[in-house]
Design goal:
single chain, six-stranded mixed β-sheet, 15 helices
């Protein structure tokens, strides 16, 4: 587990003596939760798939309530803070009561090249909003495609973590500057830039606060329903990939974290801020440093198109990582890529397929590792702190064959994250890790 930095450690711990914090991670396929104590030791964890519902947001809300319902009584009595992370760029358009007016648009939903043009007409070069999958592109897509009757009911644009946090505290219209980066929020100035103000839809933009900042206590209704303290604070959240970084143990510029989940996300702690929208690269603010990186559509979702979990494990044991196959794959679940190539129409490259399934899987794993390497090398080329060691988070961290393939290719030490669970990083966020660990 991460250790607290020494300056101010005793004073910081005194604030939370005998208390617990809860981090909840809303990923692409399910919910994960972790409760940590004042020593950042995990005291309880929970995971579940989303319940099947016609609307995704209903599944999310039910999963949130089910998670709270699973908390042990001993944890409930001492729970003081809750924070939520969600998938970056997953957004909802809501009415004044916080009810979604349309189905949620997921992180990988590409609005098409035609939606980038109006963003490009407003935003400066290299803005993180310059992407077909950005929050801003999705907002403009709604503006153009929804009927006036529906559009005129819109009051809040909310990210997944924003909407779920508001289920807890009841204060609609809040976001954090990690989730709002792809909306165009200026994380350098900590303000919306002038080009976002005065637009016909400016009133829909959420109020942005710092990740880890307390927003409001849990509602009295939920406090009574789940036997929680009415003083339990709901904390501004973050994105799933940043939560994974916070859980990893990375703390020095040059430390990188690769999240191997349904998609592949890389984060490199850097002295320098790197923004290059033409490559799908952007930097999040993290204390005195910057988290430079991007998210590719490659990852576990591609593997699951061909193999189930047990088959993946069996085939991985048959692979010799030291003898790579002569296969040049760019594994994507469908056309479209965000990083290190930013092309909403990039086709998958998954042929030729050898007759031997283990060889085919080896080619897929190698293809994903090459995308990872390309991403880190591009960050360094653009001025980020050079990669010196790598932590792996997400479900893919458990595949030792994959880890060996990546180590051979990247030529840096690779280790499993201190905690592979983003929910643990979100709990650390609620405790104040950004201030304590990164200044």
């Amino acid at each position: 587990m991460l250790e607290l930095s020494q300056p101010g450690k005793a004073a910081w711990l005194h604030m939370y003596d005998d208390n617990f914090v809860l981090g909840i991670d809303f990923g692409t396929s399910g919910v994960r939760a972790a409760v940590v104590d004042t020593q950042r030791q995990v005291q309880w964890s929970h995971r579940a798939d989303y319940p099947q519902q016609p609307q995704l947001h209903t599944s999310w809300r039910m999963a949130l309530e089910e998670t709270l319902g699973q908390l042990p009584a001993t944890i409930r009595a001492g729970l003081r803070r809750i924070a939520i992370d969600g998938t970056s760029g997953t957004v909802l358009l809501c009415d004044r009561h916080g009810h979604p007016l349309t189905p949620a648009l997921l992180y990988n939903y590409a609005c098409g090249e035609e939606m980038i043009e109006p963003v490009r007409a407003m935003a400066p070069p290299h803005s993180p909003a310059l992407s077909a999958t950005s929050s801003l592109s999705k907002l403009l897509w709604w503006q153009q495609t929804l009927s006036p009757e529906v559009w005129n009911q819109a009051v809040y644009l909310l990210h997944q973590a924003d909407w779920l946090s508001a289920q807890l505290h009841g204060q609609w219209g809040y976001s954090d500057y990690h989730n709002s980066l792809k909306l165009g929020y200026d994380v350098g100035a900590l303000a919306y830039p002038a080009w976002l103000l005065g637009q016909p839809w400016t009133h829909l933009l959420p109020k942005v606060v710092a990740p880890g900042q307390a927003i409001a206590p849990i509602t009295s209704t939920l406090a009574a329903q789940f036997d929680l303290s009415p003083q339990c604070q709901v904390i501004a959240g973050t994105t799933d990939s940043i939560a994974a970084f916070l859980a990893s143990g990375a703390e020095t510029p040059g430390d990188g974290v690769t999240s191997l989940g349904s998609t592949l996300a890389i984060k490199l702690l850097s002295h320098q801020r790197i923004d290059a929208s033409q490559y799908g690269i952007y930097s999040h603010r993290l204390g005195q440093y910057w988290l430079a990186g991007g998210a590719s559509n490659t990852g576990g979702a591609v593997l699951q198109q061909f193999f189930d979990g047990p088959t993946l494990a069996t085939l991985s044991e048959q692979i010799n990582p030291s003898t790579p196959p002569d296969l040049d794959y760019y594994p994507l679940p469908k056309p479209g890529e965000r990083f290190p190539i930013n092309d909403p129409n990039l086709p998958p490259r998954l042929t030729p397929r050898p007759a031997d399934d283990a060889t085919f899987l080896h080619g897929l794993l190698l293809g994903i590792a090459r995308i990872e390497k390309q991403g880190y090398r591009l960050l360094e080329k653009l001025g980020a702190s050079p990669l010196r060691q790598l932590y792996t988070a997400g479900g893919g961290a458990k595949n030792l064959t994959w880890q060996t393939i990546r180590a051979n290719l990247l030529q840096v030490p690779i280790q499993t994250a201190a905690s592979p669970e983003a929910a643990v990083g979100t709990a650390y966020l609620a405790q104040g890790i950004i201030t304590e660990q990164f200044g």
